[in-house]
Amino acid sequence: MTVATPLRPYSPKSLAAMIGAPLLTIGTLAAVVLAPAVSAQSTTAVNCSLGDSLSTAVAEAEPGTTIEVSSTCGESVHVPRTVHNLVIDGSGNATVQGPDASAPPTGPGSFTFFIEGQGITLQGLTINGGAHNGVHLSGPASATIVGNTITGTGGAIHLDKDSTAQIAGNTITDNLGYGINIQENSYSRIGFTAPTRGLNGNTITDNDGPGIVIKQWSTGWISGNTIADNQGDGVVIDRNSLGEVYDNTIEANTGDGIRVSNGSGLSLTPEGAEAPSQVAGNHTAPATLNGGTGISCTVGGYVSGATGTINGTGGTTYFTEGCVNSLTSASDIPGNGNQASSLFQLSS
Which SUPFAM superfamilies match (predicted)? Predict the structure, then answer.
């Protein structure tokens, strides 16, 4: 079992500088390189039905430890900065039940997982509860979050303060807020992992907020995911952030398919060596349009690449004055593009 630790990305100081110029790829912008994987050195078994504590096992873990969890653990788990290169593996047989998701957050103990360490892997878990977040990374933290079911949380996954994450193969559904939120100069691959770069998309559906939010100088690759039936936009890129978004199914959200605003950039074309290795055309979904437009751009945003078949009840695109439109038709890049169904008209 291995743990990959992505290094912190570089974020631009002004995406406004890209206006009128080709959009930079995340590969050139973030320059993300993964450190060599660290092999697990020991294994610790945690069975909460026998009185074991996952939190205690985490606090005592040496670098390279794999914690194999079984049964249901009713606790808030803190992974401190002193813990790194740790795997928490539920193998599909473990639930971590955090605090009441509807309660106001009062600190780290309000989250189901509060991660400050580096090279942390969460896999094969069902993650429930957590006021504000089920999984909260506070930086500079780094994690691989793969193959989990995250439901009934305040908001499923949150990154801030220069954190990095690879988020793939998860089911993120029925949460009280967003599916994934990346902010404060953080970076994430969503739908694939390095170094293989093969697609392993997330299913992000039926959440009470947007599917994915990238904001405040953050960057994200979003590829191979199903983002549907969320209350709000499918994908939001806001406040001087950058996203590459392609080969996703984006449908039946109540807002726009993809919303770009406030000096942010969107590329719909895979570019650079760090892009996913198996990008193909979107899978055709039923004609359930998003509630707004397919792609909206306001307040100095920049959009480039192939539109694919993304659409909404308000049409394919909506651009305000000051946004740069470098979109091309889906046929210009065969096999690429996003497909959308329903999202709401952008509100300012």
Answer: Pectin lyase-like
